[in-house]
Every structure is written in structure tokens, then in C-alpha cells.
Amino acid sequence: MRSFFNKSPRLKRLLLMIVIVPFALLWGEMFTSMLLPQNVDSRMNIFAPDPIIGFTYKPNAKTYEKGREYNALYQINSLGLRDREYGPKKEGVFRVLLIGDSFSVSHGLEIEDSLSRQLARALQAAVDSDAMPLEVEVVNAAHGGYSPYNYWKAYRRWAPVFKPDVVFVGLSPDDYDCKNENSQYLIEDGMTLAIYKNGQAPKKAGGSTTRKIRKWLSWNSEFYILMRNFLYYNDLVGRISFWMNAKAGERDTQLQQFEVPQPEIMKEAWAKTFSYLKKLNEETAADGVAMIVAPIPLKIEIDPKELQQTLAASGLSQSQIDINQPLEEISAFSRTEDIPVLDPRPALRERHAEVPCYFVYDGHWIAEGIRAATVSLAEQWRNLGLPPWGQDKVRKP
Fold first, then answer.
1. In whole angstroms, what is the distance from residue 290 CA to residue 104 CA?
2. Which one is the CATH code of 47-393: 3.40.50.1110, 3.60.21.10, 2.60.40.10, 3.40.630.30?
3. pTM
4. What would you report as the CA-atom Rg of the chain, rounded to the nearest whole angstrom?
5. Which of 97, 171, 264, 285 has the fewest CB atoms within 10 Å, measured from its CB?
6. Could you tell me where the beta strands, DSSP code E, fall in 243-393?
7. What is the pLDDT of residues 158-195, one digit of tens each?
């Protein structure tokens, strides 16, 4: 046997690997779970198809959204929203319909820390300070992955149900992609299996074997999560990845909405975004419902250090971007359409200089950031005389 191995050193190395690798992985898993515990990815199998919006949450579903910095309960109500149950609108209730993406639904946060809850509390405090006999409700109709196309459709879907007084749109600078317009979703047991356009036959995406293995590991292995997070969030690895993409001719799009001059693809994307916001504005006006837009800033717009790190990784210089460009685009459109814009950036920058307002690694805002933002938003809301303060400004259908 020894002479056989001497003649076949490759086979010997292979057999050693077969024996050693499982033990090494097992040791890594045990070491991680005991000394460096990680949150494995959650199986977010809580989605349901919707004939109007495309997709929403599965009614009465429950799961935990897990990540490196959070472990948040997602409890879905009987209508398919991440919120409590609501009955018919009562006399003396001022109701706001919140629509938006992952920032608005409050990715990674408990519902009591969410944008909908904190905005309701901030508006209620402002209403109470003026001795107005109103109860403020903010219905959370936001959903991670929604685009402005979905915002328009979400209003169509939920306005007849909730009869809001105001539609509040949380619009972040990465909300310019409307490629999912007119899409339908094949969803089974809460998992999205296929996305297809109207008139097409859905084709289930099987995925590669490697992708399936990675997904299984992300659900089951803390050691895999540890290594993935190290590689994903390591600055040196990130710079190498950007360099390799550049060498391969792949263009980094992380900052393209801030680039100057503005890329043609961004001009087209913003035009598409604003076309759906215009539809939404026209329909809310026809219903006599006020519409408000709040551009929600990305972390790089608030944290100078984060911006410099992102610039260094992307290979762009400060002179090649304008960090205020998306806000200016949104503001210019809103002025044309006579849509009020509430900007939480000054309040967020001031608060973030004192305590963190965003997750360290994830990039979404945290409870403290939402708290600073909503207090400022409520103050601007009242100062502009928007409903319920300016009932004379309520649009007549």
C-alpha cells in the first residue's frame, strides 16, 4: 500500500484532503458557533403574488429577517402588509399611506422602530402640541424591492381599502430602476420561483448547483456566514474586486446616480421613475388625496467617511460625482408637479455626527436615524401647512 502511494502522490494528497477537509470545516463550524456566533440568512419565504402590484407579503406570515447586525421579526397582517390590523377608517382619524422600498418598510428593524411607527408618533406629537383632536395612523404599505412603478400600483391597490388622507412616498436615490414594470411573479410557499412579463409563460429558474449550495450554506452554516461577511466587507478584498471588474471591462454602477456628467442611462432611468410618480400624483389628485415625497438619503450622503471609502473602492474622484444630484433631480420634478418635498438630510447629518444613524455594514438606516428623520419630517410637514394643518390645501377630486 505504501509503495502504491509513493507511486501515486496525487492520489495520496487527494485522500488526505478527503479526510482533512471535513474535519477542518466541522472545527470551523464549532469554533464559530461557540466563539463568534453569526446570524444565518433567514428564509424570507413570506411573499405572495398580487395581480395589481406584482407581489406583496403573504397574509399572516411570520419570519425573522436575519443579518450580521440584526434579527428582526416580520409579522404580516391579514392583508399582506408588515403592520398591525386596521379596521374601517373612523371619524377623527388622520390616515397616511406609506409606500416605498426597504428603507421605508424598515429592513432589519423591529416594527416599533420602523418608519411607519416613528412617523406616526412624530406626527401625533405635533398634532397634540397644537391641540388638534386627531388620531394619526401611518399604514405601512412599503415593501423591499419595490420601485416607483410599484409605488403607483400600491396606491391603486391600497387606497380603496384604507382611504388615506395623505400618500407619503419614501424615495431613496437608488429607486430609479423600474425594470420590473408590468412584471408578474410565480411564487410558491412564499418563495419567488420566476418573474415574467404579462403574456409570457413563467419559467422556473432552477439556478446553478453552485448557487444552490451557497444558498443552503447561507441558511445553515455560521462558519460560511463568517467567511462570506469577511470577504464581502473587507476593504482590501473590495478594492481587489473593483479592480478585477475594471480589468474585465465591467462598469461599477454603485455611484452612477451621482456621476457628473450624468450618464445617459441615468437620464433614461429618472425619466421612467418620474413618469410613474407623475401617474401617482395624477391619481391621488383625482381622489382628493395629498401626496408628499421624502427623498431618503443613502449612507454615503450622510457619512463623509462612508463616501470617501466608496469613492476609493470605485476608483472615482470627488470631482466626478455630485452627492446632491439625485435630490436635485427629485426636487426639480416635484416643483414641476407641485408635490411637496420633505428633506431629512440636515437633521440626519447633525444626528449622525453624534451617534450612528445607519447600520455599520448593511447601509440601511437604524432606529436612531429614523427617529431623527421623522421628527424633522413632522416639523417640516407642519411648517408647510400640509394636511391636517392645511385642510384648505386638500385637493378636491
1. 18
2. 3.40.50.1110
3. 0.84
4. 24
5. 264
6. 290-295
7. 999 999 999 999 998 888 889 889 888 888 777 777 78
